Amino acid sequence: MRSLVILALSFVLAHPLIMAQKSNEGKDEETARIEITARSDQESYRAIACGGNGALIFFKSVEIADNQRVKWYFSFYDRNLKQIWVKTLPVLNDLDFRFKTFSGDTLFIVFVYKGKIKSEDQPLEIVRIDLKTGNFIPNITKVPANSEPVFFNTLGRYAFLALNHKTGQAAVEILDLKSNHSKGFMIDRETPSAFRWFGTDSATGNLKAVVSKAISKKETGHWYQVYDTTGKVLNSVNISTINGDREFSGFKAIANQKGEELVIGTYRLYTGGSGQKNKSQDESTGVFTSLLEQGNQKNLNFINFLQLKSINSLLSTKDLIDLKNKALKKKKNITEYSVDFNVLQDEPFEQDGRIIQVSEVYFPQYHVENFTDFDFYGRPYTNSYSTFDGYRFTGAIITAYDASGMLLWDNALEISELISPELNTKVVVRVMGDKLLLAYCAAGRIGSKIIHNDETTGKLEFSPLESRYPDDKLVSETKSGLQGWYDDFFLCYGFQEIKNVALESNNKRFVFYLTKVKFEE
């Protein structure tokens, strides 16, 4: 089985390798790269792959539109990364990009409030962009003070925003995009609540959510609920762990082929006999599934990460042996212990009747910096402090379930050199017949492999992305990412510092780059 290949126009290597794209000038649609000069990776450049329409780059400029707004620049490119149009949009100073979603040829971008004044109703702007014409339609509204937008969806002429409030009053804001009128409803006026997952049902026009509610000071309950657009609860199912030694830590939901809802998430164990929870509330012990059928919770399954066949890819042999010896010594099952991963779940999807879930493993990384200071008498002493580097991603767990939520198989993707300041999903999954392509971008190269169920059909490949000129040397790369684009094409982006001593001028440059890549088996 051949590995994955990213085609380059100027050459194709005979041995399996991922190869980089060249400049888009005069090239065919399989080869394209653009570079935008940047001062540092603190600039706000962002890239969005917009399907067969093209790709969008946008950023916040320093240009003032008026005393309340600043100009954002939007640049749209076709599938060959040839620039089609450039537009500016005045946006309120304290707003920043938060959400994006698509509806046909329309891209929705949401700017939310990032200012310091939280005691007043906060502005929010939804911008609709017609990708074919380049027309912008902004909708400005307000959300209640001290609220945080956590989910955004659209359906027809309406936009839905799920809000978690500081006081625990979760709510839904509904904006009519044609009239710009808004309405909304609270989830529970009496019990503090928070959204954990939110979606829309295109068939019925109803809203779906997983909501957590504070039953008491020490107990939290979780419900899967369906609402109409007036806030009336059409269906409510309590999702319970049954056993008191487990607690849910994350939720996703997807409808199976029968139309039943399957909730997939993560859970953690309580530790010891004291009833205390794990040290970190962000860590998870494993994954769970819960089938909701006719308003009831059925087929509740817990799968400890240590039960997975692919755990060897994410833990060292020594760690596994130590856990097994510890369990053997205390005459316990190894699944009574936990590796306690920080996990970020992707949205589940269906493949040939199976539900596929990707869970990305990460941890916050810090480094210690030391400096010399002097006391009142002038005597030197050393001070130390921790600096946050970002979130280091170490791997992805792929699990497959049948329609009832029973585990069919599991696999894993190892991740290296990926540190991100933002906590969002990094792994791109593409269905290739009965196989899955798994890929990510980091440190100037793409890591990828193909799996068939619990088997890996080709080894994990690390292949560099070449730059614009033959003698370019990558010095550093930050904030890199990979997005699925259209057909077999993907979009890779990030900030790069590049050195090229062969150039007479500009032999060292810092850029935000966009590269089109194609994967072939």
Describe, in plain words, how this protein is organized in 3D.
The structure is a single chain. The protein is mainly beta. Helix content is 2%, strand content 57%. It contains one helix and 35 strands. The strands form eight sheets. Strands 20, 23, 24, 25, 26 and 27 form a six-stranded antiparallel beta sheet that branches. Strands 28, 29, 30, 31 and 32 form a five-stranded antiparallel beta sheet that branches. The protein is globular and about 70 Å long. It starts with 31 loop residues before the first strand and ends with a strand. The N terminus is likely disordered.
Keywords:
1 helix; six-stranded antiparallel sheet; 521 residues; single chain; mainly beta; disordered N terminus; 2% helix; globular
Low-confidence stretches: 1-30, 272-279
Helix content: under 10%
Number of strands: 35
Strand content bin = over 45%
The rounded distance between the terminal residues' Cα atoms is 8 Å
Radius of gyration: 25 Å
Question: Helix tally?
Answer: 1
Task: Compose a concise summary of this entry.
By secondary structure, this protein is mostly beta strands.
Helix and strand arrangement:
Blueprint: E1 32-37, E2 46-49, E3 55-64, E4 69-77, E5 83-92, E6 95-103, E7 106-113, E8 122-130, E9 136-143, E10 147-155, E11 158-165, E12 171-176, E13 182-186, E14 193-200, E15 207-214, E16 220-227, E17 233-238, E18 246-255, E19 261-269, E20 283-284, E21 286-293, E22 296-304, H1 317-329, E23 341-345, E24 349-351, E25 354-374, E26 380-401, E27 407-420, E28 428-432, E29 435-442, E30 445-452, E31 455-456, E32 461-464, E33 473-484, E34 489-499, E35 508-518
Antiparallel strand pairs: 1-35, 2-3, 3-4, 4-5, 6-7, 7-8, 8-9, 10-11, 11-12, 12-13, 14-15, 15-16, 16-17, 18-19, 19-21, 20-23, 21-22, 23-25, 24-25, 25-26, 26-27, 28-29, 29-30, 30-31, 30-32, 33-34, 34-35
